[in-house]
C-alpha cells in the first residue's frame, strides 16, 4: 500500500526546473520569461515584424491610391452593435464628406441607416507577396465600396494602408541601420581595445570628435546635402548609411572597454600561448564573454535609429514621396491647422510610440536575462 501511495505521489509531482543542471541558454530564457513586460514587448515586436512582411495582404488598397470623394475624411470605426445595441457581423457606417459653404472645409456626415459589412479574405487589388508571389487576397474590406479605418489625408489617400506600408520601410531602416551600426562599432571598438597604443588613441580621438557634435544638427547637415533629384531608393540607402555612420560610437567605446579588461585574463593569455591568431582570440574567446550585453545594446539602439529616421523625414530631410515611412506620414501634420482639422494624421505617431516602448521592454528583459543569477 505504501508503494502505491509513493507511486501516485511521483505521478502527481510537477516537473521542477533544476537550475543547477540548466544550461546558460535555459537560465536566460527562464529569467526572460519572468519579465512580463518583456514578453508583452516581444509579442508586439513580432506583430510589427509580421506587419512589415505582408503589408499588401493586411492593407485595403495601394499606398498611393486616392479616393477623391472622401478626401480629408475621418476614420471609419468598426462596429459590432448598432445604435439599438443589436449585434451584427463587423461593419462600418457609411460616411460622406461635403464642403462647408462658408469655411470651405470638408465636413463628414455619418449615415447611421446604412451599414457596410466587413468581409474577410476578399479579392481586391492584385499584388506580389514578398515581391514575387502573385496574389489578390486581402485580410478585410468590402468589394463594393472603399473603407478607410484610419481616415484619409487631403489627397484622399488611405491612412491605414499607408501606415501599414510605412511599417515595412521604417522597420527595415531600423534593422539595416542597427546591423550596420553593430558591425562598425564591433570592428572599430574591437580594433581599439585589442591593439591599444597609438591605434587606440587615434580611434578614441575620432570617436570623441564625432560625439562632440550635436546629433540633430549633424543629421540635418548630412541629410540636407543630399541632391534633390535623387530617387526615393537612393535617399533610402543614404539615410540608412548616415544613421549608421553616426550611431556606432557608443557601441565602439563599450566594446573597447570590455576588450581592454579581457585581454589580460588568464584564459586569453593561455589561448595566445597556444598559438591562436588575433582574429581567433577576439572572435572565439573575447567577444563571446560579453555577447549577451552586445545583444542588449543592439535592441536598445533600434528605437534610436527609428526615431532618428522619423525626425529627419518629419523635417522633410529624410525619406521622400512616393516612398512612405512613419516620418513621411507625419510630415503632413506639421502645422497646427492640419492637426486641428484632421487629427487622425497623427495615427502613425502612435505606431512609433508603441514600437519604441516595446523595444525598451524587450531590452530590459534581455538585460535582466543576460545575468540570470542576479536577483
Briefly note the structural class of the backbone: alpha+beta
The CATH superfamily of the largest domain is known as MetI-like
The order of strands across the largest sheet is 1-2-3
CATH topology value of the largest domain = MetI-like fold
Strand content: 5-15%
How many helices in DSSP terms?
15
Query: Termini separation (Å)?
Result: 44 Å
**Rg result:** 27 Å
H/E order of the elements? HHHHEEEEEHHHHHHHHHHH
Q: Which CATH class of the largest domain applies here?
A: Mainly Alpha
Q: Can you offer a commentary on this structure?
A:
By secondary structure, the protein is of the alpha+beta class. The protein has 2 domains: 68-155, no CATH class; 161-369, Orthogonal Bundle (MetI-like fold). 57% of the residues lie in helices and 13% in strands. It contains 15 helices and 5 strands. The protein has helices at 2-12, 24-34, 36-53, 55-58, 159-195, 197-212, 215-224, 232-247, 249-262, 266-273, 278-286, 291-314, 326-331, 336-341, 347-369; strands spanning 79-81, 87-99, 106-117, 119-129, 133-141. It has a 3-stranded antiparallel beta sheet, with no helix packed on it. Strand 1 (79-81) and strand 2 (87-99) form a beta hairpin. The longest helix is centred in the middle third of the chain and has 37 residues, at 159-195.
Amino acid at each position: 500500500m505504501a508503494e502505491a501511495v509513493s507511486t501516485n505521489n511521483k505521478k502527481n509531482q510537477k516537473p521542477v526546473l533544476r537550475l543547477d543542471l540548466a544550461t546558460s541558454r535555459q537560465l536566460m530564457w527562464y529569467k526572460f520569461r519572468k519579465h512580463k513586460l518583456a514578453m508583452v514587448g516581444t509579442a508586439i515586436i513580432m506583430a510589427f515584424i509580421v506587419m512589415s512582411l505582408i503589408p499588401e495582404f493586411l492593407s485595403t488598397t495601394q499606398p498611393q491610391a486616392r479616393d477623391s470623394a472622401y478626401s480629408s475624411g475621418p476614420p471609419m470605426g468598426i462596429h459590432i452593435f448598432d445604435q439599438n445595441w443589436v449585434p451584427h457581423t463587423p461593419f462600418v457606417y457609411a460616411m460622406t464628406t461635403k464642403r462647408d459653404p462658408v469655411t470651405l472645409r470638408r465636413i463628414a456626415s455619418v449615415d447611421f441607416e446604412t451599414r457596410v459589412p466587413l468581409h474577410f479574405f476578399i479579392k481586391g487589388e492584385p499584388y506580389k507577396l514578398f515581391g514575387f508571389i502573385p496574389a489578390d487576397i486581402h485580410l478585410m474590406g468590402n468589394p463594393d465600396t472603399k473603407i478607410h479605418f484610419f481616415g484619409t489625408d487631403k489627397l484622399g489617400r488611405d491612412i491605414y494602408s499607408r501606415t501599414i506600408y510605412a511599417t515595412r520601410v521604417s522597420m527595415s531602416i531600423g534593422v539595416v541601420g542597427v546591423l550596420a551600426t553593430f558591425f562598425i562599432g564591433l570592428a572599430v571598438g574591437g580594433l581599439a581595445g585589442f591593439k591599444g597604443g597609438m591605434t587606440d588613441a587615434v580611434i578614441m580621438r575620432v570617436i570623441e570628435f564625432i560625439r562632440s557634435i550635436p546629433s540633430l544638427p549633424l543629421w540635418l547637415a548630412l541629410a540636407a546635402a543630399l541632391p534633390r533629384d535623387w530617387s526615393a531608393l537612393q535617399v533610402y540607402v543614404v539615410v540608412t548609411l548616415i544613421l549608421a555612420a553616426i550611431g556606432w560610437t557608443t557601441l565602439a567605446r563599450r566594446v573597447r572597454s570590455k576588450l581592454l579588461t579581457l585581454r589580460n585574463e588568464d584564459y586569453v593569455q593561455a589561448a595566445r600561448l597556444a598559438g591562436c591568431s588575433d582574429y581567433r582570440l577576439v572572435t572565439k574567446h573575447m567577444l563571446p564573454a560579453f555577447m549577451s550585453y552586445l545583444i542588449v545594446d543592439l535592441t536598445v539602439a533600434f528605437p534610436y535609429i527609428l526615431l532618428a529616421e522619423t525626425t529627419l523625414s518629419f523635417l522633410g530631410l529624410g525619406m521622400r514621396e512616393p516612398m512612405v515611412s512613419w516620418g513621411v506620414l507625419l510630415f503632413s501634420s506639421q502645422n497646427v491647422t492640419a492637426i486641428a482639422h484632421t487629427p487622425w494624421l497623427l495615427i502613425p505617431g502612435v505606431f512609433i510610440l508603441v514600437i519604441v516602448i516595446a523595444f525598451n521592454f524587450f531590452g530590459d528583459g534581455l538585460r535582466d536575462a543576460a545575468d540570470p543569477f542576479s536577483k
